[in-house]
Design goal:
Chain lengths: ~300, ~400
Amino acid sequence: MSTATTSDTPQAAEQPAAPGAEECLLRPGNTNCGGCGMSVGLTLFGRVLAEEELACQMAIPACCGIVTAGGFPTTSYNVPVVATTFGSAPAYATGMARVRSLNEEGHQVVCWAGDGGTYDIGIATLSAAAERNEELIYVCYDNEIYGNTGGQRSSATPAGARTTTTPSGKAESKKNIMEIMAAHAIPYAATLSIAHPEDFARKVRTALGTRGTKFLLLHSPCPTGWKSEPGESVDLVRVAVASGLFPLYEVWEGATYRLNLEPDGTDPAEYYRRQRRFGADDLDLEEARVACERRIDRIRTLARQFPAAD
Amino acid sequence: MAVELVTGNHAAGYALSAAGEANRNARGAVCGIYPITPQTEIVEYVASFPFTKGEVVPVESEHSAMGVSIGGSLAGARSFTASSSNGLAYMVENIMVAGFYRLPIVMVAVNRTLGPPWNIWADQGDTLMLRDFPWIQLYCQDNQEVLDTTLLAFRLAEDRRILLPVVVCMDAFIVSHTQMETELPPQDRVDRYLPPLDLPHRLRSEHPVTLGGLVWPNEAMFHRAEIDEAMDRVPEVFAECQSAFSKVFGRTVDSAIETYETGDAESVLIASGTIAITAREVVRRRREAGEKVGLVKIKLFRPFPEAQLRAACRSAARLGVLDRNYAAGAGGIFWQDTRATFQGSATTALIQGYLTGVGGGDVTPALIDAVLDDLMARSEASRPQWMGLEPPKEDIA
Ligand SMILES: Cc1ncc(C[n+]2csc(CCOP(=O)(O)OP(=O)(O)O)c2C)c(N)n1
Ligand code: SF4
Ligand SMILES: [Mg+2]
């Protein structure tokens, strides 16, 4: 990056200007695919920041989210963004957050990372930042695939999904990152869905009002990788929530749980049927139903046994 | 100024901490730390330093140690770290980023043999592996030089004409763990030498740039060319930092290259780090015996001080380069750069490479005598010579 393009304003006593409500985190005009859940996620996330009049600085590793910025010197982001190495967003963000605190500044430090950067290459770094309880918000937009490199499997890819590196369907099941983060006993972890914008906004507000490491997992439809219709993205993740495939829930300190929405009995099969990444032959639907039921049951039990205070 | 008996690691820790502390009235200091023998005492020193405005972050890997320092630097803090050997290898991806982001991070590296097979002794192969990144590299011979050079490195790195990270190197154990009398400057002197850091491209919330986003090839090339210009300015700015150092601390710090008895020397040794101390002694003795020998100590390895080296060796007929490192398939790395320096110049000196102390063996006066004997008897150069090579013991199993 050319150092000549940057301003020379004095450093003392600055009041960071938050983006106005009409000027969101993600500006109009970016290169994301149509129907990209990450774009919607950024818009919803930015809206809360704008409402709360909070400035933010982001660390984004290699992923679709950094391509979103577009070509230098323009950018689709309305806040300062640092492109980090693939596995390093929480490390760079740690440095940024520590200096923010040293200088008593009010902006949020946010990691915005894909599932590859979170579940795979960055997991040690994320785990370490969580263990240190760094003062930051970590959002993983989980499209269950390496989107940026053209659709390879990650450990977030669900069983049965075809990717370019699992051409006949992935044999292994999806890693449970929420449990991993909860096991760090971080102050707050929650799942987000773009089909439930009010729940989404409430959780972002909770994260903004909580000290320490906050982990938000966003189910992020990716028509390009999922071989789904761009116009159906929101509906698809709504089905994921309704069927219990992607439960909306929150965990405090790894100790107390809240299930935000009970599944309504929608058959998970509907979710699978509408994405061509799941070949009919590669997927054992009955097994998928059982796994789904077992997962939601576990969260239900935890929420009942260890309920979060209101 | 207090003179104390301290190790090279202590000297480095002292300098890093004092430099960080000197930024307390600006945006503070940040240091990501991770241990590895033989540099561990450096990060331990930093971790126990009572910073007025500083954050030392014990992370899970060297990759993240540099990552934290990068984040801190981007946010405007004076940032630094230390590492060695396989730690540097693990850190490489973020080392590269620090340079490409033009961050004035200072790293102290204790040169240790890369493994496997495991060996903790001195070998420069670890930092020399980084030689093609946008980092300034400085090699030191003793504790005082480590301390002084580390302080100088911050001033050099943070100069607006440079804005590049600096790695300050010392030999494992011979310097890192050896106590020597060292002048430890008081904080107010360090404050005077290192003014508050104001990084021009630090993140500012009201300035929504995306650092490190997509560029076209022409922009990438321009970015590299800007680094090249900054590298070209290093010798001049380094000299300025040296004279400022003398004014503030009342002692001198070694130049990019130091010459000893090179004036009329026919055979000149070129060395770096602790080997240079021993070589100087050998040269002194052989001068007394009437032999026309000399020594060049190279401190600044990146950018390679071509002009100064050419000037220093103008009259020499033979140059012998001692390398405590080995680039597979090529030879010693200082030797390669020395050859490139004289390529196409008026000098017709024979340039011979010697691989000495690779893997950490002692480079004794006797070994350097053998190098000089070989060099002085030569009428032509050959492939680099492995000196002091001994076959391992037979398998006793
Ligand atoms: C160290 C390293 N290895 C590999 C890559 C190539 N790479 C860039 S993005 C990416 C996948 C990103 O996947 P994810 O984090 O899920 O984000 P998405 O692209 O799906 O948005 C890979 C493999 C890289 N940039 N750095
Ligand atoms: S590949 Fe997927 S995640 Fe990436 S921009 Fe396209 S839809 Fe979004
Ligand atoms: Mg992904």
